[in-house]
């Protein structure tokens, strides 16, 4: 056979390499990967933290302070800049690390023959000589010489720019053919659009064609999302406004109030530093990164950062059925023949269980009649069963695995039967035509085609007459119970037929049906109930039969509406009619990937934010169209994963719902960080502006304002990024996708809290002065009041949707407590350490002073809690209403 020569010429055998040989070759050839772009050096990354208009402004302020001889202020400004840059640097590093580490979770794999068995091998570990099996949706992992190709179409646009998929064959071509004409080769990085093939790896890594072109792996993703951009945009505008206001205030202070210009300048600089939320974007980045990590821990790997935000706003989840909502652990349950019915015993893939005829039928006669169908099920089949430690598992499609188990229960020995009936050619299964056919040489030398597929597909090919009424009645009975049905057919062919085409299966003999059970995942039932309370619609979009889909939908609690709409019906609808229909119908059956795309669009035209699952190569367009395209990590193709924003490691519907839960938490935390940061800055500013306008002594010095900013920036606000979910996150409706981050309630809070802060600070200021104490003491009181107020306000903000007065609310989290401990320690030093008194002009306070400040803080907390309740009762703000 010429192939044998080909294998040895390529340094391998038809059964692939041994693991040791592969190891050895890996050591010689190196990993099958392009060298990654060198990460930016830490020094450059650190310096980049200084590249912002705000930091330039701060540094200018620092220089001005130095020139004016205010060395302490200059030093504190420098400390603010350094602390911010360091925090930003560390956070950015952590965020990147979090994203990189989860990327490894979905590193691509290929199916190769190692030690004679099909093995999942990491693409990085492929070596020249490996035999790799390709199928639709795979990204070709290395440059390969094809030794077998069946309907293989490969999209080589990445390499040749040619958008029409190229047909591939195993034959020989002239040795100097240009790339596009080398039809017996597939090249690394191209995408299998249809069919199946087997190839021998000839080049890996930078030796491949794509390696020669690009040399580097360009996968550096920007750490940004729409929300983050919105905030950066806001921060820039806010900074501009603050700068203009600062100039005006400066003019007013010097010209009207008669401040010395250098004093006023330092003061205004400090104020601007205090007001501008320079740390906000960094804190939000870390909030997103924490969300990504929490989602990964719950089996949802985020590929594109913006999905973290979008998940929280998801209002519809469209899920396929098999494997996502059901377990995808198939068991053949019954055989339906023209004149017999048999029930199958046993569970799982273990080949143990009896097959008994129904009614008064004779078991042996009925089983005899079923033999051709059972053989068809075993031969028109690519799955293998494997036993390990008493547990039977499938390599390949679970339904095909169930057919192997069934054949074994009937006494057929898979390896023997497959050897006696060698497969000559096949038409692989494709969701578009919904059947698979294989051509075999029988032990007597005859050629036979076996076909298995969706009943409708086989009925359409069946040689008349078939008793449609009988078959449809059986299908309705079985599918109504949630059984999944497959039909089987066979046909004799003239000797010598070597290639199978669609015409060859135009007229087949229908052998019968097999019903399978695939129980719903128990956790999916809970997850769907959660979606209901969270105001999220669940739609099942499946390739399965309408009655099966509806029955499973009912078991899962999805199908309130007793209709299932089929792909054929969708084709008859206009986009407008479809948009009306998708609102109410929750089960879509016998759909193809094009229908999925139309359904997503129809839902989106109605304002929905749609998460959509998919696994096949043809699902890529709908995954891209969906707001959160979700690919299956296990059974999904590379094409689907690459198009998706999120990949589920366990293919489980419940993981999508968990990701939505985390997405909502992330968004809540971003709001909390913002809700805490802005009014606290606002309060500080208000105190000082009032003093300048009203013309009384300044309640805080420039240095003290800088101190407050320094100590709070990296502690309390950051703690909010780590907040766990609020109780009831999944009991409220999804947020509107166009809702502004600063909602009316938050804007109202900004105003209210700023006023309360100013009131408290000025209150203690005048009270202390009124007791005849020094202005330094009064200022120390103000600084402590502001900080203590911030701490108590933090506890209010931790729960925006429910009351904070609970055990859980009061105890805080370790992160919150650590942040508070740091702030308190800093504040004690500020108040009591002589050197700090020297630098910041502070003075030690008495125990009574401390008690007063804490008392006011507690009062602030209760006032804001009452306000939350009052606002909820008044129902002014939508987000507070349950
Ligand atoms: P879902 O879309 O929820 O995953 P599904 O697995 O039924 O459900 P498809 O994979 O599109 O969806 O399959 C559609 C139909 O094609 C199935 O209902 C079945 O009748 C038939 N089918 C599925 N797998 C095979 C196969 N390996 N060989 C032959 N026919 C198959």
From TrEMBL:
<dbReference type="Pfam" id="PF13246">
    <property type="entry name" value="Cation_ATPase"/>
</dbReference>
<keyword id="KW-0067">ATP-binding</keyword>
<dbReference type="InterPro" id="IPR023299">
    <property type="entry name" value="ATPase_P-typ_cyto_dom_N"/>
</dbReference>
<dbReference type="Pfam" id="PF00122">
    <property type="entry name" value="E1-E2_ATPase"/>
</dbReference>
<feature type="transmembrane region" description="Helical">
    <location>
        <begin position="746"/>
        <end position="769"/>
    </location>
</feature>
<keyword id="KW-1003">Cell membrane</keyword>
<dbReference type="InterPro" id="IPR004014">
    <property type="entry name" value="ATPase_P-typ_cation-transptr_N"/>
</dbReference>
<feature type="transmembrane region" description="Helical">
    <location>
        <begin position="811"/>
        <end position="833"/>
    </location>
</feature>
<dbReference type="InterPro" id="IPR050510">
    <property type="entry name" value="Cation_transp_ATPase_P-type"/>
</dbReference>
<dbReference type="InterPro" id="IPR023298">
    <property type="entry name" value="ATPase_P-typ_TM_dom_sf"/>
</dbReference>
<dbReference type="InterPro" id="IPR006068">
    <property type="entry name" value="ATPase_P-typ_cation-transptr_C"/>
</dbReference>
<feature type="transmembrane region" description="Helical">
    <location>
        <begin position="704"/>
        <end position="725"/>
    </location>
</feature>
<dbReference type="InterPro" id="IPR059000">
    <property type="entry name" value="ATPase_P-type_domA"/>
</dbReference>
<dbReference type="InterPro" id="IPR036412">
    <property type="entry name" value="HAD-like_sf"/>
</dbReference>
<protein>
    <submittedName>
        <fullName>Magnesium-transporting ATPase (P-type)</fullName>
    </submittedName>
</protein>
<dbReference type="InterPro" id="IPR018303">
    <property type="entry name" value="ATPase_P-typ_P_site"/>
</dbReference>
<dbReference type="InterPro" id="IPR001757">
    <property type="entry name" value="P_typ_ATPase"/>
</dbReference>
<feature type="transmembrane region" description="Helical">
    <location>
        <begin position="673"/>
        <end position="698"/>
    </location>
</feature>
<keyword id="KW-0472">Membrane</keyword>
<feature type="domain" description="Cation-transporting P-type ATPase N-terminal">
    <location>
        <begin position="1"/>
        <end position="70"/>
    </location>
</feature>
<keyword id="KW-1278">Translocase</keyword>
<keyword id="KW-1133">Transmembrane helix</keyword>
<feature type="transmembrane region" description="Helical">
    <location>
        <begin position="50"/>
        <end position="68"/>
    </location>
</feature>
<feature type="transmembrane region" description="Helical">
    <location>
        <begin position="265"/>
        <end position="290"/>
    </location>
</feature>
<dbReference type="InterPro" id="IPR023214">
    <property type="entry name" value="HAD_sf"/>
</dbReference>
<feature type="transmembrane region" description="Helical">
    <location>
        <begin position="238"/>
        <end position="259"/>
    </location>
</feature>
<feature type="transmembrane region" description="Helical">
    <location>
        <begin position="845"/>
        <end position="864"/>
    </location>
</feature>
<dbReference type="Pfam" id="PF00689">
    <property type="entry name" value="Cation_ATPase_C"/>
</dbReference>
<dbReference type="InterPro" id="IPR044492">
    <property type="entry name" value="P_typ_ATPase_HD_dom"/>
</dbReference>
<dbReference type="InterPro" id="IPR008250">
    <property type="entry name" value="ATPase_P-typ_transduc_dom_A_sf"/>
</dbReference>
<dbReference type="Pfam" id="PF00690">
    <property type="entry name" value="Cation_ATPase_N"/>
</dbReference>
<feature type="transmembrane region" description="Helical">
    <location>
        <begin position="781"/>
        <end position="799"/>
    </location>
</feature>
<comment type="similarity">
    <text>Belongs to the cation transport ATPase (P-type) (TC 3.A.3) family. Type IIA subfamily.</text>
</comment>
<keyword id="KW-0812">Transmembrane</keyword>
<keyword id="KW-0547">Nucleotide-binding</keyword>
């Amino acid at each position: 056979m010429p192939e044998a020569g080909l294998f040895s010429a390529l340094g391998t055998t038809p059964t692939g390499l041994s693991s040791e040989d592969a190891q050895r070759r890996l050591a010689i050839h190196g990993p099958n990967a392009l060298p990654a772009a060198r990460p930016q050096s830490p020094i450059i990354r650190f310096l980049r933290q200084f590249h912002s208009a705000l930091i330039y402004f701060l540094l200018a302020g620092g220089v001005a302070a130095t020139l004016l001889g205010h060395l302490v202020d200059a030093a504190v400004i420098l400390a603010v800049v350094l602390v911010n840059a360091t925090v930003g640097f560390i956070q950015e590093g952590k965020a990147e690390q979090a994203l990189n580490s989860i990327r490894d979770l979905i590193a691509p794999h290929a199916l190769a023959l190692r030690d004679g068995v099909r093995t999942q091998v990491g693409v990085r570990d492929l070596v020249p000589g490996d035999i790799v099996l390709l199928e639709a949706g795979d990204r070709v992992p290395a440059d390969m010489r094809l030794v077998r190709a069946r309907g293989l179409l490969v999209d080589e646009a990445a390499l040749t720019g040619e958008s029409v998929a190229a047909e591939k064959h195993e034959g020989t071509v002239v040795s100097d053919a240009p790339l596009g004409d080398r039809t017996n080769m597939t090249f690394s990085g191209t995408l299998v659009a249809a069919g199946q093939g087997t190839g021998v790896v000839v080049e890996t890594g930078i030796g491949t064609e794509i390696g020669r072109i690009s040399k580097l792996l360009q996968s550096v993703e920007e750490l940004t999302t729409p929300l983050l951009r919105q905030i950066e945009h806001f921060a820039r505008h806010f900074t501009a406004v603050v700068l203009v206001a600062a100039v005006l205030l400066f003019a007013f202070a010097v010209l009207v109030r008669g401040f010395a210009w250098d004093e006023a300048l330092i003061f205004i600089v400090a104020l601007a530093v205090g007001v501008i939320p320079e740390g906000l974007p960094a804190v939000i980045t870390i909030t997103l990164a924490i969300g990504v990590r929490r989602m990964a821990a719950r089996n949802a790997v985020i590929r594109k950062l913006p999905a973290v935000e979008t998940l929280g706003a998801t209002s519809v989840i469209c899920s396929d059925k098999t494997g996502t909502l059901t377990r995808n652990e198939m068991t053949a349950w019954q055989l339906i023949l023209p004149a017999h019915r048999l029930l199958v015993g046993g569970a799982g893939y273990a080949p143990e269980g009896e097959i008994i005829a129904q009614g008064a039928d004779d078991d042996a006669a009925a089983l005899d009649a079923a033999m051709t169908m059972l053989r068809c099920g075993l031969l028109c089949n690519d799955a293998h069963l494997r036993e390990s430690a008493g547990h039977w598992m499938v390599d390949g499609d679970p339904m095909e695995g169930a057919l192997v188990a069934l054949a074994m229960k009937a006494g057929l020995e898979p390896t023997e039967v497959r050897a006696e009936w060698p497969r000559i050619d096949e038409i692989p299964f494709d969701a578009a035509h919904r059947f698979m056919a294989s051509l075999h040489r029988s032990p007597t030398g005859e050629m036979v085609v076996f076909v298995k597929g969706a009943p409708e597909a086989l009925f359409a090919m069946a040689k008349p007459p078939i008793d449609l009424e009988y078959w449809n009645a059986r299908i309705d009975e079985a599918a109504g119970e949630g059984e999944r049905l497959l039909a089987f057919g066979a046909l004799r062919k003239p000797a010598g037929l070597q290639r199978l085409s669609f015409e060859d299966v135009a007229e087949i003999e229908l052998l019968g049906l097999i019903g399978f059970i695939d129980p719903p995942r128990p956790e999916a039932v809970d997850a769907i109930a959660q979606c209901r309370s969270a105001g999220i619609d669940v739609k099942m979009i499946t390739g399965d039969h309408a009655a099966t889909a509806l029955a499973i939908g009912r078991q899962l609690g999805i199908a309130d509406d007793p209709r299932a709409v089929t792909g054929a019906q969708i084709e008859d609808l206009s986009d407008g009619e479809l948009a009306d229909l998708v609102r109410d119908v929750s089960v879509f059956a016998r759909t193809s990937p094009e229908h999925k795309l139309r359904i997503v669009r129809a839902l989106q035209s109605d304002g929905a934010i749609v998460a959509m699952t998919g696994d096949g190569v043809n699902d890529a367009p709908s995954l891209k169209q969906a707001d959160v395209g979700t690919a299956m990590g296990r059974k999904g193709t590379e094409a689907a994963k690459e198009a998706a924003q999120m990949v589920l490691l366990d293919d489980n519907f419940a993981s999508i719902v968990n990701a939505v839960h985390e997405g909502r938490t992330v968004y809540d935390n971003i709001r909390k960080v913002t809700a805490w940061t802005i009014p606290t800055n606002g309060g500080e500013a208000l105190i000082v502006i009032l003093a300048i306008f009203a013309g009384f002594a300044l309640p805080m010095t420039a240095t003290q304002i800088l101190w407050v900013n320094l100590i709070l920036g990296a502690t309390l606000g950051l703690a909010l990024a780590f907040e766990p979910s609020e109780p009831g996150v999944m009991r409220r409706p999804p947020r509107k996708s166009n809702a502004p981050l600063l909602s009316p309630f938050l804007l109202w809070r900004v105003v209210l809290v700023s006023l309360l802060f100013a009131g408290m600070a000025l209150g203690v200021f005048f009270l202390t002065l009124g007791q005849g104490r020094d202005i330094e003491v009064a200022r120390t009181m103000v600084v402590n009041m502001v900080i203590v107020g911030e701490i108590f306000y933090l506890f209010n903000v931790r729960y925006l949707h429910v009351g904070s007065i609970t055990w859980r609310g009061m105890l805080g989290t370790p992160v919150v407590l650590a942040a508070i401990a740091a702030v308190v320690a800093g504040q004690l030093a500020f108040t009591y350490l002589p050197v700090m008194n020297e630098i910041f002009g502070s003075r030690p306070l008495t125990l009574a002073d401390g008690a007063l400040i804490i008392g006011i803080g507690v009062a602030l907390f209760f006032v804001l809690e009452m306000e939350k309740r009052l606002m909820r009762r008044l129902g002014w703000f939508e987000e507070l209403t349950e």
